[in-house]
Structure formats: C-alpha cells, structure tokens
Write a structure and sequence with these properties.
Length: 104
C-alpha cells in the first residue's frame, strides 16, 4: 500500500506546504524505484522560532521515514531555507538506502 503521511503541516503557510508536498511526492517516486517493497513514507516537519513577529525567520527541521516491509529508513535535516532542507533530507535518505543495499 503506497501512501504519504504528513505531520506538522499545520504550522506552515500555503507556499511552504506546496514545497514540502512537491519534494516529498517526487522523492517518494524515486524511493519506490530503489526499494520494491516500499509501503509508505512519513514526512514530519517541525518549525522552530515560529512565535514572535511575523517577519522573524523560521528554522525548519524535517524528518523522513521510509517504511519498507523489512526495514524502516530514517533521515533528518534542518536549516533556515525550506527548499534546501527538503533537498538535504531527501539526499540523506537516498544515501542511507544506497548504503544499505550496497553493503549487504
């Protein structure tokens, strides 16, 4: 059963939600090509420094969890720019998958 779960999206504005959904949907397709038995993926977005004035910068922390039938793969990244954080966490998860399959 292929599915994406999003956690913590209520703290994001519409533009940020669009960025997270775009990256995670594209990455889910890429992961599914790497792992045949991929059951789902969870995207957990945490926003730090979101209280205070509206012009205050947000610090994003994104965790991805790819759930396969045999193992659960996780990766995290954080930073000030959501695009870069999403690219980094996707790249980290891909590296973990490549490492797992090349080592065993």
């Amino acid at each position: 059963m292929e599915q994406l779960k999003y956690i913590g999206m209520e703290k994001l504005n519409d533009q940020e939600v669009e960025i997270v959904m775009k990256f995670s949907e594209e990455h889910f397709v890429r992961l599914h090509r790497m792992v045949d038995n991929l059951a789902g993926m969870a995207v957990h977005v945490k926003v730090h420094s979101d209280h205070g004035p509206k012009d205050r910068r947000k610090n994003y922390e994104v965790s991805l969890k790819a759930i396969a039938e045999t193992k659960i793969f996780t990766a995290t990244a954080e930073g000030w720019v959501l695009d870069k954080v999403m690219k980094d966490v996707c790249k980290n998860l891909e590296r973990e998958l490549e490492h797992m399959f090349h080592r065993h």
